[in-house]
Amino acid sequence: MSLSAALLAGPFLGPAVWEPVAVSLHDEFGVTAMVPAPVPAVADPMAILAALQETLPAQDDLLLVAHSNAGLYVPALTRALPVRGVVFVDAVLPPAKGDVPVAPEGLRELLRGRVDADGLLPPWTNWWPEDDIAHLFPDTATRKRVEAEQRRMPFDYLTARVELPDGWDRIPAAYLAFGDTYAEELADAQSRGWPVRTMPGAHLHMLREPRAVAAEIMRLAGEAGVSPTTSAPVRPPSP
């Protein structure tokens, strides 16, 4: 089977955040790369997981590349699809078992008073001060593309929890951080024995340096034991 990279954006954003990296992975590394369509704007994480699972190819070995909140869905996807490895990119890193909240309490409290009459959160770029958002984008056109795909998720999504299959993190994996926002996750990944790397930048750094980010993803995947030419590892049995 050939290796395909599936670049997962968090539910609040859409494919535009990953499309430049997908192009670089294909053109410079010969890796088929796809970015799933936006997931449904619903409160139930299981519905989001089902949408991702239906979109991702089941015929190829997959390298999952998960950004931000999409990291929550990696554990279940590793059991449902032929996943050869994972690279978390400035993403939530779930524990090896149990369950995990969609959002920390601090974020829920920050946004609780900004929910509209229909129970919907504001678009993601409106969560933060403009000075914190403007530098995320290389130009106005890119910002418009990203903002056009933003999902207004129900506030109740932030209160949900995601169940995790035991031992999912025995699969080859690595972690790429942009700056120190996800420093705890980076340290967690390192403690699991995974390859890790930090690129100076902000949360959407893949929009500013897609070629460099693509190169780091492939380098980390190779260090984890996953490359377009390696054979698929034996995955741990489902419990």
Q: Mind telling me the C-alpha Rg?
A: 17 Å
Report the count of strand segments.
8
Treating each run of at least 4 consecutive H or I residues as one helix, how many helices? 9
User: Helix amount, in percent?
Assistant: 25-40%
How is the CATH topology named? Rossmann fold
Mean pLDDT: 93
Which residues form runs of ≥5 with pLDDT under 50?
230-239
Shape: globular
Top CATH class: Alpha Beta
Determine the N-to-C terminus distance: 25 Å
Order of helices and strands: EHEHEHEEHHHEEHEHH
Number of domains: 1
Strand content: 15-25%
Oligomer: single chain
Name some characteristics of this structure.
AB_hydrolase_1; 239 residues; catalytic activity; disordered C terminus; 18% strand; 6-stranded parallel beta sheet; alpha/beta; Rossmann fold
Write the layout of secondary structure elements.
Layout: E1 3-8, H1 19-29, E2 32-34, H2 45-55, E3 61-68, H3 74-80, E4 83-91, E5 98-101, H4 105-112, H5 130-134, H6 140-148, E6 161-164, E7 173-178, H7 183-191, E8 196-199, H8 205-208, H9 210-224
Parallel strand pairs: 1-2, 1-3, 3-4, 4-7, 7-8
Antiparallel strand pairs: 5-6
Structure report:
The chain is of the alpha/beta class and 239 residues long. The chain has one domain: Alpha/Beta hydrolase fold, catalytic domain (Rossmann fold). Helices cover 33% and strands 18% of the residues. The chain has 9 helices and 8 strands. Helix 1 (19-29) packs across helix 9 (210-224). The model is unreliable at 230-239 (pLDDT under 50).
